[in-house]
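subagent[fold] <- orchestrator: predict structure for attached chain, return C-alpha cells only, no commentary.
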Amino acid sequence: MVDRLLIEKILSDIRSNVNDLRHARDITWEVYRTDIRSRRFVERTLHILIEACIDLAQHIISDERFREPASYRDTFAVLAEEQVIHREDLPRFEQMAAFRNLIVHYYERIDDAVVYGVFNRNLDDFDLFVERIAAYLERKNP
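subagent[fold] -> orchestrator:
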C-alpha cells in the first residue's frame, strides 16, 4: 500500500520548487548566461525537481511491488506499464531522467541553452507529473 502522506509531501515539494522557478522567470537569457548564481539556482532546482519525481516514482514502485526498474528512465516506464501515468506522457518523463543524467554526470558539458530551454519550456512537465500521481492516489484511495 502506498504511503499517501509521504507521496503528498513529495508532491507538495515538487509544486513548491516549480513555483520557485516560475517566480524566477525574470531571469533572462542574458542574465542566465552571465550570472553564475542564476545559473546554479536554475540548474539545482531542476535537479531537485527531477530527483523528487524519481524518488516519488520509486516509492510507488516499491510500495506497490511493481517490477524493479533498470534505470531512472525505466522508473517512468514502470509507472506507465502499471497505468500510474499515461503511456503517451512517457517520453516527457523519460526526458527528465535523461536531463538529470546530463546535469549530474556530464556537468562539464552542460549546454546553457539546453538548461535555459528546459527552464522556460518544460516546467509544465512537472505539473503534469503531479497531476498524474494525484489522480493515481485518488483512484487507489478515493
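orchestrator: received. Logging for downstream: The mean pLDDT is 95. The chain is about 75% helix and 0% strand.
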